[in-house]
Amino acid sequence: MSTSSVAEAGAGAGAGTAAVRPARRPGRRRPAAGRLLRSELGLVFRRRRNLVLLAVLALVPVLIGTVVALSSSSPNPGEGPPFIERVAGNGLFLVLTSLVAVLPLFLPLAVGVVSGDAVAGEANLGTLRYLLVVPVRRGRLLVVKYAALLAFCLAAALVVAGSGLATGLALFGGGEVTLLSGATIPFSSALLRTLAIVLYVGVSMAGLAAVGLFASTLTEVPVAAMATTIALSVVSQVLDAIPQISWLHPWLFSHYWLAFGDLLRQPVPTHDLTLGLLTQAAYVAVFGALAWSRFSTSDVSA
Predict the structure, then answer these.
(1) What is 151-183 written as a DSSP string?
(2) pLDDT per position as a tens digit, 160-173
(3) How far apart are CA 226 and CA 120, in angstroms?
(4) Facing residues of 214 across strands?
(5) How confident is the model over 103-151, as pLDDT tens digits?
């Protein structure tokens, strides 16, 4: 064989090796995590049960707005949910009233169902072990599932707000908004504050979603994880209503859920809002770590 032939063969082999090497680099695993996130988001938002939950949340503002519109008299201050006496004067307040109405039960119920099913549902169907075939570590898989849960929390709050805004403007109109502190702001500024309120409510469900994710790693029965998460939400709110244990209230994940009312003051007091976000971050850190510890050591190969 000639020297040129050997050189050409060596160059061809080198080119073949170079063509194969990129597939072995760790960076090639990142697109798998992205595909997994898109798949998880599709699973969450295409499941009929979850769509029904979102539809129920969207009906709450329609029901409240219709009742107020058909009522012959406006409720007195202090009667009914907060802000309801202002709905007839400005439809934007229907968004706030609806968020207050869904926070005690409907929104935690929806989050509890979806988060309780995150891991336990896959384990129950036997598809969890196939997910681990994807070149993504268990910790990253858990992060992907939690990211999808957080997206659902934000989407649920946005659905309530969007339905409330559309219904309120259709039935009562808009206009300038008088804040709780007495100041009057333009409708556009009030919309920005409402968006901040919706984001705060969505993030306020982050702690409950982390609790549900942890519960979901403890069992292969999704109904048990859902019931546990919803029950803990109810217990937290019941404890928050008992004045004799007021020392415990700031440690409950539900204590600052209604702190978004501070965004309707001028200037905005940030103390409770900040504590609310820090509380959710603490619950996410603690129960996220517990979920990772459980999930990373559990046997899902059977």
Answers:
(1) HHHHHHHHHHHHHHHHHHHHHH----EE-TTS-
(2) 999 999 999 999 99
(3) 9
(4) none
(5) 999 999 999 999 999 988 877 765 665 565 555 677 888 999 999 999 9
Q: Which of 228, 235, 281, 283 is nearest to 117 (CA)?
A: 228
The helix (H) or strand (E) run that includes residue 184 is strand 184-185
Domain range annotation of the chain: 42-297
- Could you please report the per-residue DSSP string of 187-249? HHHHHHHHHHHHHHHHHHTHHHHHHHHHHHHS-S-HHHHHHHHHHHHHHHHHHHT-GGGTTTG
Single pTM value for the model: 0.85
Token readout for 256 is 């600052």
Greatest alpha-carbon pair distance for the chain in Å reads: 102
The answer to whether the Cα torsion of 273, 279, 283, 289 is positive or negative is positive
